[in-house]
Amino acid sequence: MADENITLRLARLNEAPVIAAMSRDLIETGLGWSWDSERVSRAIRSRDTAVLVACDRMRVAAFAIMYFGDEHAHLNLLAVRTSHQRRGIGKRMVNWLIESALTAGIATVTLELRAANAGARRFYQTLGFTDAAQIPGYYRGRETALRMSRTLRRANIELPRWSMPSKG
Ligand SMILES: CC(C)(COP(=O)(O)OP(=O)(O)OC[C@H]1O[C@@H](n2cnc3c(N)ncnc32)[C@H](O)[C@@H]1OP(=O)(O)O)[C@@H](O)C(=O)NCCC(=O)NCCS
Questions:
Q1: How far apart are CA 96 and CA 127, in angstroms?
Q2: Which of 2, 81, 146, 167 is the most exposed place for a label (fewest CB within 10 A)?
């Protein structure tokens, strides 16, 4: 169900602390906190990165961070507050980013999620993402990531396929 009170817009610098706290509590739980306020601020300032927020009146209800390369975009983070989940907000945000990627001429969008996060995997599958690789130890050397991707058009430069680094 679409929510009329939710508006999407680019994040402001003073929203970095709230976005960072949401990353800590909703995404990075148990992994340590890598997307702190300073890192989120850098992403907001970066010309290559879109930091999108969905606001319920004044409150940030969800956010997404996506890096745009020449042909490949990477969805770094996406989280919707528990109180606002299953209201179509995540889907609206991904669709906004995909529209931007299409406009920017992006060929492929990739993302990683914790392999145990079955709900998020299902969510991305409904949005046309498919499994691309399992990456053992991706998170802090101890948790497996699932890489998913969605092709928007044929790429001129192929994404390198991920393979396990050789030891030694
Ligand atoms: C995953 C997440 C972003 C989904 O956002 P959302 O706004 O709740 O999702 P939507 O309401 O747009 O869902 C769209 C569709 O995706 C599917 N879906 C969403 N969440 C799902 C879940 N937990 N289990 C199964 N399917 C799910 C459903 O088909 C849903 O449609 P429906 O509600 O009509 O059945 C949100 O649950 C979240 O922030 N989780 C915590 C952080 C996280 O895991 N982020 C992703 C990894 S970075």
A1: 12
A2: 167
